[in-house]
Amino acid sequence: MGYFAIAFVVFASYYFISSITAWHRLRHFKGPFLASFSYLWVARTTLSGRAYKIYHENSHKYGGPFVRIGPDLLITDNAEMIRRMNSARSPYRRDGWYDAFRTNPYSCAMVSSTDEEHHSYLKTRTAPGYSGKEIPSMESDLAGQLDNFKRYIRTKYLSTDKDTKPVDLGTALHYYVMDVITKVGLGQEWGCLASDSDVDSFIRAFNQASPFMMLCCDVPWIRRLLANNFMLRLIGPKDTDRTGFGKMMSVTKKIVEHRFQPDVEQQNDMLVSCFALIRRRGSFMRHGLSKMQCDAELPVVVIAGSDTSASIIKATMLYIMTTPRVYQRLQTEVDKAIEARRVSSPITQPEARQLSYLQAVIYEGIRMQPPSQIFLTKRAPPEGDTALGYRIPGGTGIAWNLLSILQDKEMFGEDAYLFRPERWLDIDVEKRQEMERHVELIFGYGRYMCSGKQVAMLHLQKVYVELLREFDFQLVYPKSAWTEYQYNGFVIKDMWVRITDRQAETN
């Protein structure tokens, strides 16, 4: 009993002293009291499923460009601070937060690399593929999957006056995006639309793992305990798994094995940031990535692309359906462009860019609900920094408060909380560009910019036009439009809609 008492006193003393030390270091920053000496506040917020709303609320509650959310962690809603931390010559570096995204104990993907030289090495060699420059078939592959999605709706979920067939649009759109990513990258869609199912339970497994993954990211001691090579080998996904992420690793590993065979002909199709993997001898391989590096990179691309893209499309479709003014105006713009033969089938990116209201809807949809609200933490240089009138001690982590940035009233107006695409119209070019720069922070900035930004935007230019030109969408349960949780990205389901054929209605 005496030894136990001594151990308890030692532990309590250590905890008390370390808590006081942690509190003192960032005492001049406001934030929740618990967060000043413990990561329990962050852990609770992460597991709540509504972290993005909580951080947004705390930004308003405490004011200022920084809010303290952990003993050694700040969060900022200042766009210029974000650009400062991510600029090419910034002394800020990637925080250990990124370590939790590792899925391969033997090699580190670009998204999880905290070694700046290694990250730059991977970014340089993957950029030509991620940007889509080396995928001449990319636009036609996207168009083909859109045709498959429309066929999926027509054959299984098209309602008429006599027969209503509700569909969970949240789930259906995720199936569609999974097929897009795997088709553009692997050369063969995953098959979710064809089977009307979550093939190999990949989406379900990712959604189930997301709370745990984000807890590892956001809480340093959990990350150090679990996000390491030993634990990855012990409990991480394996290419022998029959379902989930391990199955994805198995499929991509076999593809890489094949592409590295000496008799495989080289072709101009490779890995695209959020949308592609590698077919034949692709961009990754031509630019010097090893087989092991490809094994680590490719599964992560599917995660990043499927979850983020699906979230944007789901949210924007919900806002369109619940705002009749926007729905009618967008559909009218599309119809008039088709009648004037300014839009082909499927629509091309140059044609889409000429539709001003479509562009407004795209940017407003992203602004209202970014694809994810993750920290993307950067760490202050050892000597510290002075920014926005505050002294930031060396080694302090600074996370992004993306929703607050995108709903900044000074930038977007007093009704920044409201979905109103018209705010993008009838403003001068300079203001429009400034607003676009704000919204495009969802893709990162500077040396950490998502290389697949152009590919992602290409996808958004097509999907709304192709759906609204042929179908009408109506919420089945407008009082409960969807079920939504936010961890890594957004888990959106129970978005039940009734879809009808516009041509049949006209006739």
Automatic annotation (TrEMBL):
Transmembrane segments: 6-23
Binding locations of heme: 450
Top-rank taxon, per record: Eukaryota
Cofactor(s) needed for function: heme
A single GO molecular function term of this UniProt record: iron ion binding
Pfam families tied to this protein: p450
Keywords for the protein's UniProt record, in alphabetical order: Heme, Iron, Membrane, Metal-binding, Monooxygenase, Oxidoreductase, Transmembrane, Transmembrane helix
Family that this chain belongs to: Belongs to the cytochrome P450 family.
Annotated protein name in UniProt: Cytochrome P450
